[in-house]
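Title: Prediction job returns without error message
Component: structure pipeline
Severity: low
Priority: P3
Assignee: unassigned

Description:
Job completed but the reporter wants confirmation the result is attached to the right record. Sequence as submitted:
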Amino acid sequence: MNTKLILSISMAALLAGCNVTPEPLTPSDLQTTADRNFQRVDADQEPVSAPIDLYEAMARALKYNLDYKVELMDEALKTRELDLSRYDMLPQIVASAGYAGRNNFSGASSLSLITRRQSLEPSTSSEKNLYTADLTLSWDVLDFGLSYVRAKQKADEVLISQERRRKVANRIIEDVRSSYWRAVSAERLLTKLQQLEDSVSTTLENSERLAERRLSAPLTALTYQRELIEIQGEVRRLQRELVIAKAQLAALMNLKPGTEFSLVLPNRGIAMPDVKYTGEDMMMTALQNRSELREVSYRQRINAKELDAALLSALPSFRGILGVNVDSNDFLYNNDWFQWGARASWNVLNLFRYPAQKKAVKAQDDLLQQRELALTMAVITQVHVARARFGHLSEELGTANHQMRVQDKIMAQIRAGHKAGAMSQQTLLREEMNTLVSEVKYDIAYAEAQNAYANLFGSMGIDDFGPDITGKEDVTTLRGSLAKLWNDREMAMKPN
């Protein structure tokens, strides 16, 4: 009875210990995680000590952008998995040791099958306490073949992760170019826009006071106020657009919001390079280099190896064994010995599975081929659109540049007229607004043209960074490498 009670209590305790309930994170855990992440998000970054130019912005994005770091870590993981898979091809060497004991001897007697009488008194050939150990080497030829195929697939996975890293890096650099030139516009114009807004606000208040005192015609005053309010609204819209650009650039460089930094302000009027590639050359280059198409090609290789794995699984398995054993049993004539052997086995049902596996692999291959064709059409369309977009934006940049130069001449005339008393304050404010708008439009057109220029190479799958760049270099080294790459590229694009 006591034994049953003890067993019941032990079983109840065991079942209670196996009961697991969800444990949500506590507010303290969440606070600790938030504090840790906030401190680590920009840890170990080189501080900004001077105005940032375009190439330093690119370098900081490649070195510190967290999206790019995720791809780097994914590539490192795939490489480690490949290294690990190589061990699966090696033979197995298993070492084991054990102890077994009992309270009495293990014994047995024999029974004659003819006379049905006991022919041997009970005896034992084993001690009560035994120690055993063995070291066994075994190698399965089929497992080696399958492991080799899986390792080759892992190698293709590494290459896929490299292509994804290339794609993310090129996208980040394109975004940096676009955000940088918009942020440059913000550096140039935000102070002027704020001064203009202050002037418009003051003039609007004066106009409303004059209207209240009925010192001007009501309709004239209201029309004037409407124009001032429209100018004020346009100024604020431009301010919003420019302020966001600098915040976007900071995010791409992984600078915390609110971090103070300034930009190198290049001279306006820098001409965009010409496109020297033909449309067909660009398309063929893209079909060879685009990371999406390369990834599909690697997926096709992985799928083809899946058919090899299915075929190997359908073959017989052959395992060889070699081992050394030790046993403490004194009744044994030999307490240590070598053993060897071989074993063949064959899961015949795998033969019936193979046709179905082959059809599944074929269906996957058909899917990949169709996806490759769809991507091919998408890529050549993107190349065509990128080429046309760069051409149109280059023309729009020329128009914006022409408009800005004409507006500068008009502004000079208006200022001279206002100084001489021939032009009203209303006209001066309107033209100051038009001048700033023309400058903003030029800067935005230049930013879009620069983005389209980078997108040309991105659409062709030509990397926006050198093959020697790993992201582990310091910012100065990265900046120099990127500057050389893009300067050489622009020189090659200039007409002879």
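Comment from assignee: result matches the submitted record. The longest helix spans residues 141-212.
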